[in-house]
Automatic annotation (TrEMBL):
Protein task: Key enzyme in folate metabolism. Catalyzes an essential reaction for de novo glycine and purine synthesis, and for DNA precursor synthesis.
Pathway: Cofactor biosynthesis; tetrahydrofolate biosynthesis; 5,6,7,8-tetrahydrofolate from 7,8-dihydrofolate: step 1/1
Full protein name: Dihydrofolate reductase
EC numbers, comma separated: 1.5.1.3
Length: 161
């Protein structure tokens, strides 16, 4: 099973200059809770946006760069199909970005865990449109802004029809 996990604004913005454009501590906690002890697939730029590999997860990094060097324990492949083939078939695996990897993954994903950040921001990376003819929204959980969260946000769970 493959789950896309992302946080995107109302205009589908994901980030700018390889950085997130908001800080949502509760979303980070949810991301950690969902992805810990699972395989996570990401593009090279997403991987490079982390200060170090995320603990207790198997990283599969997609890059076209030859001889790309990553820390021990990270797996390097040159396309999404190879990444998918390396994942365990009997458990949930996560696709964590970036924009191009999300776009390529929409056809193969079974589920989307999207944090919709209720703002519109300037960005250079975007989440693909979710086709309502292909996806059913099965759960929502709203969170108002507070002293730790500058924006209202909603967790949205979709499954493929």
């Amino acid at each position: 099973m493959f789950t896309i996990i992302a946080a995107a604004s109302e205009n589908n913005a994901l980030g700018k200059n390889n950085e997130l454009v908001w800080h949502l501590p509760n979303d980070f906690k949810r991301f950690k809770a969902l992805t810990t002890n699972h395989y996570i697939i990401m593009g090279r730029k997403t991987f490079e946006s982390f200060p170090k590999p995320l603990p207790n997860r198997t990283h599969i990094i997609i890059t076209r760069q030859k001889n790309y060097s990553a820390p021990e324990g990270c797996i390097i492949v040159d396309n999404l199909k190879k990444a998918i083939n390396l994942c365990p078939k009997n458990q949930e695996n996560f696709i964590i970005g970036g924009g191009e990897i999300y776009k390529q993954s929409m056809e193969i994903a079974d589920k989307i865990e999207l944090t919709r950040v209720h703002t519109k921001v300037d960005a250079d990376t975007f989440f693909p449109e979710i086709d309502k003819n292909e996806w059913n929204l099965i759960a929502t959980e709203s969170h108002p802004k507070d002293e730790k969260h500058a924006f209202d946000f909603t967790y949205l769970t979709y499954i493929k029809k």
